[in-house]
Records
---
Amino acid sequence: IPAIHQKLEADGTEKVEGSMTQKLENVLNRASNTADTLFQEVLGRKDKADSTRNALNVLQRFKFLFNLPLNIERNIQKGDYDVVINDYEKAKSLFGKTEVQVFKKYYAEVETRIEALRELLLDKLLETPSTLHDQKRYIRYLSDLHAPGDPAWQCIGAQHQWILQLMHNCKESYVKEQKGKDTFLFYLHTHTHTHTHTYIYIYVYMYICNALLHSPMLDLDSDVRPSPIGHLSQTASLKRGSSFQSGRDDAWRYKAPQQVVFVEKLTKLVVSQLPNFWKLWVSYVNGSLFSETAEKSGQMERSKKNARQRQNDFKKMIQEVMHSLVKLIRGALLPFSLREGELRQYGGWEMKSELSGQWLTHVIQTVRLSSESLTALEIPNDMLQIIQDLILDLRVRCILVTLQHTAEDIKRLAEKEDWVVDNEGLTSLPSQFEQCIIHSLQSLKTVLDCKPGEASVFQQQKTQEDVCQLSIGIMQGFIDCLEQLSTKPDGDIDTSHLSVDVSSPDLFGSIHEESSLSSEQRLLIALSNCRYLERHTFLNIAEHFEKHGFQGVDKITQVSMESLKELDQRLFEMYIEFKADPIVGSLEPGIYAGYFDWKDCLVPTGVRNYLKEALVNIIAVHAEVFTISKDLVPRVMSRVVEAVSEELSRLMQCVSSFSKNGALQAKLEICALRDTVAIYLTPESKSSFKQALESLPQLSSGTDRKLLEELLNKFKSSMHLQLTCFQASSSAMMKT
């Protein structure tokens, strides 16, 4: 075939001008050009249709990517972050590594919007206040969006600063309110208003304060935790004759000291905020903040590793919150426990007067409830130890303040003495004193009792010593009160209400029949009270001290008893001086009345009047003492007899000589006195009578002794009625 072709080519070239197919080619080219001219428009439309069809196919196939930027914006506005994240993950897997320029362009738009979403979610995450649910949600979103850094830790840091800021804002608001309240009260005191106007001002002020304290910055009332004040108001009465009202009651808030309401609000704030803060950390540690996608990507493991590295940092955060809580409370209640620099930061309160023991008891209960709530979160004990230290200091302070206030109350008991004497010779004062102590100790029961994890308030030696000294001061204060009452001038005693128990024997005139109470009667009442205090009240109080765990009770009792006995002895000596001295002083003038001479006197005919007068005066002392306190009679009478016998012995020993009749007269009077007061004789008075008789000449004749016996019997018979009191006292004394 090639050979034939070549032959044809050669022949054609020779015989025909040019190639034999040239003509055919030209014909075909002309036919093609004609065809192009005829179908150019149709073919153009076809190419355009094909191009459009191809573009539509591309758009249909990749419309997800092209619509994604707009869809992301719409879903962000609606808050459908889960949809955005799912679409982004899908786009990233399909076009994350594309080389097609148009895809790169649109994917870059997607990344721009996702970056804006990351910033938006981070802002929402760090926004305060927010719920734990929202915080976890935003952290998961940021994790799925592969946000740079560690959003969870950033959130923890932001919450930590937010809690600290809340605490300080709380303090500042109450300090300002305290100053405003003081200014308001000063205005009320310095301006004259009608009662209606005053009530209106108070109502308006309370409304403003309530609005301030419940501002959004501090509004935590939506929290479901019950108020410690409300809880306490239903379970205890912390003040004599009254009880705390509900913590939500505005009137109660107005009456309560600002520091108390502040501690209530501050602890509620911490207890409401810290649990979510702690749970956020726990979720961060165990990786539950992140979704399954994060777990598959290994982000959860990285988070756990970060959490382990930041444990110390978080511990410092918790400790800072606890320190701020404690120091803010110390600044309000125990400012002396802070350093000067700390006081400027955590104090600022106007401490016109210290809180009473009742309010401190309430504060302790509030802090205890808060501590229990925090312990329930399983926060390590070492982080909460500072709260236990605060509670211990508050308990110690509460005890000291309560004892100080009790001492002040005891000093005012003198104003309550009514001088009404019962059948035991007592007024109500010892009972009031004992009840005051018992009430004070009962109010401290919850403070003295140790809750789980608490130490004894008496673990420190200084506390033991302070409590012991205050207790001794209380006892001494009452002793001083007794002394003050018993030694007041007559004009200072109000006896308009004075009476004696109807069961008390009143043979020689009742006290209530007199218009005033004499100094001697007050001394007797005080002596009777002292006797009862020594034998009963002080011992009962010592038992109550021991029951409540007080240390050094033996010392308290010993010192108090010694002081009481010293007072008793001083009052007793004063009374004896009042009563015995006039009797003793009347003996010598009475003996020598009418120029009587022991050397030159007549035969005795009976006991002379001076001795009878002395006995009547002794009987008057007996009656006065017996009317107030039968138990004091032996003691007083024995001492009066001692004084009289001692003086009589002295007078007899001063006589240079006696006649026969003088000796008989002296012996008659000495024996008459001795036999009359025989039941009150003491070794001292017996010795005095013996010395007096020994100083007399002995009676030699039986006639003289018989006359002496007859005169003695005559004296006893004539004075029988007056001397009956001694016999009655004798039987009563024997019974006791």
Note: Residues 311 and 578 are 82 Å apart (CA to CA).
---
Amino acid sequence: MISSSEYGSHSWELLVTVDHQHEEVQKEFLLRVTGDLHIGGVMLKLVEQIKISQDWSDYALWWEQKKCWLLKTHWTLDKCGVQADAKLFFTTQHKMLRLRLPNMKTVRLKVSFSSVVFKAVSDICKILNIRRSEELSLLKQSEDALKKKKKKDKNSKEPVTEDILNLCNSPVSSGLSGSPGLYSKTMTPIYDPLSGTPASSTITWFSDSPLTEQNCSILAFSHPNCSPEALAEMYQPRTLADKAKLNAGWLDSSRSLMEQGVLEDDQLLLRFKYYTFFDLNPKYDAVRINQIYEQARWAILLEEIDCTEEEMLIFAALQAYHVSKLSLSSEAQDFTCESEVDEVEAALSNLEVTLEGGNASNILEDITDIPKLADNLRLVRPRKLSLKAIKPYWFVFKDTSVSYFKNKESAQGEPIEKLNLKGCEVVPDVNVAAKKFGIKLLIPVADGMNEVYLRCENENQYARWMAACILASKGKTMADSSYHPEVHKILSFLKMKNWTMSPQAVSDPESIDMKPECFVSLRYTKKYKSKQLAARILEAHQNVSQMSLVEAKLRFIQAWQSLPEFGLSYYIVRFKGSKKDDVLGVSYNRLIRIDIATGDPITTWRFSNMKQWNVNWEIRQVAIEFDQNVSIAFTCLSADCKIIHEYIGGYIFLSTRSKDQNETLDEDLFHKLTGGQE
């Protein structure tokens, strides 16, 4: 019975369940509280009533019905809206989580379940020694992939024991803050820039991460590939709709794990979400470079991204070289030649330029006369119900446009046609062995995309024109400082493809102990016999055999970036006014509307032309306005519209980064750009 004085004081009983490990102590407690009692007071009352002497500093109140944390301890129960029917749970904020990394290794570590995902990923990356955590996020595995895994586990006779790397004793993961991130330009190198091995004991002196050298090598080195049988058991998307399912599970970066239904010891995927790899440096980024390489490798093996047979063999040669030669031998430690360091750094600068991350070193070059290209090329226009028409013309490339004339002499007059390439899609159409060097241009017009092919005579001509087209599509001219590195990058990729150039004899397949089926996707294992594959991979291997381990990984990443589909994340959407579903491809610099049946691009919109974007949360519709009064609106059918909204805002946020920032991130700006006003 309650005394009349207590009854009149507007107090009421609040049920709180305590998550503790002491079996002899009760877990449910009734507290008598009033609405003006603050959350900190509730926790104090509760701890006094529990009578267990332990550290309660990591505990907080979780409101089960509302799926939210009560972290503002100065707020009163009334202000939080907590009443007598509320079920509160007093539990730890840091809990164990299993993370599947891009290299398919699983790590188990303590993560904050009360911080927003953006902050939780930042803490995870400190533990794993991965810089630029803003490029990564957490992903729930797609249902199709889980079904395939369950089927595989059901069919396997032996119980599957997963090899898990346990990092649960790390200082960051146990809720204590590690030393401040020493990620400045004066930072002491913690990796050998060629082999990727930890540089003596500096990893434990200067790095934020609790990784031992042994654990670091698990994350920074590639390990033997899985068997072809295991590869066949893994989920492989067959259609654009399947690829769209892969991107449906990204967690909301502005909410906590607990708020999104993640439970203790659940498994999530840690992946690079944004394909703008900024400031890659082999001296600090061995783990990061390896994990990017691994994400690229698995995307190619599982055919999440399409590539030609010639490209697949290059990827196989680079992989086979890693696994069979450098990662498993001490040779990786023996590269100390200074010239090779320069080559690695050159490869890195090329990478940055590719991703629009490189700053112009020679600004004067950008404000002088804009150079132009003029050459004989062949024009191919696809014709419906007839053969393609292939004709030679005199082409002139100036600013961001291509004009073509009947011949060189008539170039002073009016062109037959002038093609403006700003905002177009540029797709390589190359077969080095067959001496085919084509450039496919998809140029936006009022009712879709105009398809035009340019045919070049040789590698050098192709590299110059291809680089000019790529820059023009982004609204840049050949005066831009990234033009020459782009030409060099294209030529180096063509050289890797052209393995007939090397006079070296193909080494004996037996000398490299490899199963070729481990290095190519299933499509090619079905097409060729094992010996045929091995011979072709070894032919391709001649052009990469002199590379150091880190350079080979960087070349692999660079080749991945050269694929037409690189960096595209797909979603099934319904555009306003349309009666059928389409696929929306989200990239680091543009959105592409794609025909779901044929896979052909319909329209491209560049972020550089975007004025604003927002979400109507009631009807879950994303609306975007571009220059020249162009506006689009769509609802997302394969995922929550918040995911696409966050993707767009995230890419715009990442474009604001500069090396002068000394790696301090404006987290508030990220949430403003990605959070929306839900």
Note: The first helix runs from residue 4 to 7.
---
Amino acid sequence: ERTGKVLGEFCRCYQEQFGVALFSSVRYEIEGNGGPQAQLLHRKVPLEDHVIYSGNLFQYIEENKKWRNRFCVVPHNYGLVLYENKLAYERELPPRVLVNSAGYKILTSVDQYLELVNSSLPGVTPKSGHSPILKCPTDFPLILWHPYARHYYFCVMTGKEQEKWRAVFQDCVRHCNNGISEDSKVEAPAFTDAVRMYRQSKEQYGTWDMLCGNETQVLSNLVMEELLPELRTTISPRLKGKAQERQRTWIQISDAVYRMVYEQTKAQYDAVMAKCEQERPQMESTIRTDMDQIITSKEHLASKIRAFVLPKAEICVRNHVQPYISSILEALMTPTSQGFAEVREVFFKEVTDMNMNIVNEGGPEKLVEYMEKLSHLAFHPVKMQSCYEKMDQLKLEGLQQRFDVSSTSVFKQRAQIHMRQQMDDAVYTFETLLHQELGKLQGKDDLCKSIQRILERVLKKYDYDSSTVRKKFFREALLQITIPFLLKKLAPTCKGELAKFQELIFEDFASFILVENTYEEVVLQSVMKDIMQAVKEAAVQRKHNLYRDSMVLHNSDPNLHLLGEGVPVEWGEEQSGQPAAELPADRRRRAKQVVSVIQDDEGALPFEAGAEVLLQQEPAPGAPPSSPDGVGAIRAALAKEPLGDGGEAEERLTNGADVPSGAGVQHAAPASPVSGANVLSEVQVPHATPASPTPRAETPSPSAGTACHQPSDKETGEEVALRGGEHSPPQPRGTTESGEGVQTEF
């Protein structure tokens, strides 16, 4: 009953927002309002059919209260697939558990978990001396906690394993949380705006932590947010047994209710989606026919609302928002800029290490092997962790309470997804440019120089694009923080008067123009000027390495974007010697990647010891990183470091296996469920006065690998890289790209 009531109100909001979003989409298509062109190429065909990570860990089985060894596979779409053991995976037996980790938190302490469990059922706390709800056999637990769904308990044997699995699980959560596809230009903004309008109708402003997962998961969270307190009040007094048993029972009840809510929500949401899609052709025809009249009507409405609202909004902005914008921006900029600088450094180091290994290991023959691994760099949870963890420094302190920001996790995860995308764009641009040059190169010396030259070109493009992405992120974050605060402040004096403006909208256009949305746009305009000015002034401060708005790189590589339209580079096929043009269409995708993108990081690459010497020859800060002139200088630098024989080269663990197409759980493309962010599409961004500073280059810190023993696959239970001709393990069965299978376990 409660689910039906909540979804009834939400679906009404969604149908209203669908017409508005459709109008905005068609208007944008006709008028166009693009920002600066990206310098880096964007991968149009995503890397698929590879395993992010696989290995053994212990799972607590609640049914028999035992810990069991499990073989866990994380496919390219970031589902957690648990098998009885590795043999079951290789024999294509169905997995034991499929986990979609959207909405989960990763805990590495039993005490953290017990604190959350105790707070979920007030008044039920085990007495001191009694055994807690969970006991871990090792000191290295990994617990997946969800406020509504069932919990998952894992543990490993060492702290190093715990850190790796934690990075992998966090990557899964980060990816699954962004389950609303950005490719949808109508449904996605209509959905996020409908959620926001619904919550504001309940006097709930500000950010919402549970806006995560796909649309059905988000709506289930919306229902549970209202249903769970009532359920707890009704059921809690009736729970019997010791405190631990009552807590365990409550978790099971909550999970069962969540599944029921999910099924009902999916059915009702699919029905309203189908209805909107059925009406879409007629609505779109009306929009295209009457576009000018609709725009005129909307502008007339906006002018009337502006005259009524703007004086009050400007006073509110001046007194309650303007004094804090610079503080919020500084808090956002410092960790974000450090994270993007770390992305630049990791990319520089990986390419430089690859270059040195090619020089010392025989030249072009090793290029394909290293490029295959480099292409997965953005999806390497452990190597990217140093970038992601910079955002952990984000603290809004007192500003968080003032502006009703429940948590900073929304901003952290969005920035981290931008980092991953920028890394992948840089890698893809690098491999595209290098692939173009391969036919022109003569020997090892030319290859080394070409790699270094292309690296410097890509770094310049990265500096420009990362500046553009960060400035957009700062503007959206400031709007997401300040707009709900302003709406809440203005509601008592303005919201009740909005009904009188409804008569200004022609009935034929009522599906495309809403008073509430127009009112929010006016409020946004009242603060947008201050936000734009703050970001513009921040670009002048060189410490954040931002370009000014007037800095636009025009046609620095006029043919580069044409390269991006061609067939994606297939390094695996390069190795086989078969031209990409002769491949069947279905083989142009990356059918089989390296078994895993994770390697044992304690072992150095064979010639990585020379990295420190090479990096010492970098120019001073302020100039982009560059290598010594020519191959001879690199060889001279490397010759100073003792190199072991081939037997000392570290065995590289890949901890995974090939998974053919279709493996894993529902693919969730990164999205931006940022409330209010989509209104930016209608706001013109003014350019600053011309200026052209050179961004400060981040100088990577020297690092040299140290040789140490790497455990074999028998010691770790993890999988060693397959060589050509060896049998490749099968895909995880029981999983679907459509996502129907994922919901068997949350």
Note: The first strand starts at residue 51 and ends at 61.
